[in-house]
Amino acid sequence: MSRGSLREVQDGGLALHGVIDMHVGAELRDAGRRLLAASRSSEVWIDCAAITQSSSVGLSLLLCLLRDARATGKTLQVRNLPEDMRQVAEVYGLLELLPLAD
């Protein structure tokens, strides 16, 4: 399994990859904060399709990035949230907080 990563992709987007857990959560939060601040787009999206495994840290990361985007005057949309993360979000009552594209 690959270590979690976050990178900028085309058209104002970000992409999460690999395993998102407590070992990479803080690092990805810092990277996300920097990428959001540097983005020239006022509407940023994050693609989660390449997440191979995630603990609740993945959901916490998405909520933090949502807050970080708002702090910089940007909107954030979450795309391709894996089904297991969607189920956990539903159990915790977080679905209505996440700006899901699908």
UniProtKB/TrEMBL annotation:
Source organism, top-level taxon: Bacteria
Domain STAS, first and last residues per copy: 14-102
Entry-linked Pfam families: STAS_2
Entry protein name: Phospholipid transport system transporter-binding protein
Species assigned in the record: Geopseudomonas sagittaria
